[in-house]
Amino acid sequence: MSRKIGILGGTFNPIHYGHLAAAEEVRGRLKLDRVLFIPSFQPPHKRENNVPSAAYRMEMVRLATADNQSFDPSDIEIKRGGRSYTIDTIEALRGSYPGIELYFITGLDSFLEIQTWNQWERLLTLCTFVVLSRPGYQFTDLLKIDFMLPAQDQVMKLDRGELVHVDFRAGAWNVYLELIPLYDISSTDIRTRVKEGRSIKYLLPEAVETYIIKHKLYA
Ligand code: ATP
Ligand code: MG
């Protein structure tokens, strides 16, 4: 196993170019050896009906990542079953591959909830968090999180476009903030479009679009 591994967790309901472009940008900037895409089995924070079975979401992740040699789909959370807590996934990966450096990639929207995550304080000691810009959110939103307050000047510079990368340290915690090209794409919007019969072309890989149509997902 290689040394620097990025992890993108999500519901991937469905995976789209926002996920893929963000992961590729981070891979390049951080010189990651690989990026694992890990669909959750049961997302602890989502109470949606109509989440297709994990097998469909996993297959869409497989289709979407097949043409990138550095991207690996992982069914570690689906195999584990139950609520998918990131702490369990990170510990399992560290156990299987001693010595690797783990970078957990999230959008700003997810990271804003970090203090609700299971064992979040310990989780922050086990991997570097990589927090990405996302349309509708600002880095200054992070100042709602008390431990981010010392980053005030830097988050303001990110929002103004004067910086694209910040390496924030608080004790044993290391959080990278990355201003990346924005893709105004969300799975929620894609599901709505399918339901309303509108096009989802160019929002996700063609193979995933074909799969959604074939299996009548979100219709
Ligand atoms: P939903 O609308 O169902 O919540 P989503 O588009 O937010 O779907 P998720 O599976 O929830 O997709 O996202 C997984 C991770 O990818 C989260 O950390 C999220 O913040 C990040 N992410 C998703 N879309 C983007 C995007 N367009 N730009 C940056 N980060 C994104
Ligand atoms: Mg989301």
Q: Keywords, please?
A:
7 strands; 9 helices; 36% helix; 219 residues; seven-stranded mixed beta sheet; alpha/beta; single chain; Rossmann fold; binds magnesium ion; binds adenosine-5'-triphosphate
Could you explain the architecture of this structure?
- Helix 2 runs antiparallel to helix 9.
- The chain has a single domain (about 5-185), classed as Rossmann fold (3-Layer(aba) Sandwich).
- It has about 220 residues and is of the alpha/beta class.
- The protein has helices at about 15-30, 55-65, 75-80, 85-95, 110, 120-125, 150-160, 185-195, 205-215, and strands at about 5-10, 35-40, 70-75, 100-105, 130, 165-170, 175-180.
- The N and C termini lie far apart (about 40 Å).
- The protein has a 7-stranded mixed beta sheet, with helices on both faces.
- Helix 1 links the parallel strand 1 (about 5-10) and strand 2.
The gross shape turns out to be: globular
Order of strands, main sheet, comes to: 3-2-1-4-5-7-6
What kind of sheet is the major sheet?
A: 7 strands, mixed
- Structural classification: alpha/beta
Calculate the mean pLDDT score and round it: 95
At CATH level 3, the topology is Rossmann fold
Please tell me the total number of domains: 1
Q: What is the H level of CATH, i.e. the homologous superfamily? A: HUPs
Strand tally is 7
Oligomeric state: single chain
Strand content: 15-25%
Radius of gyration: 17 Å
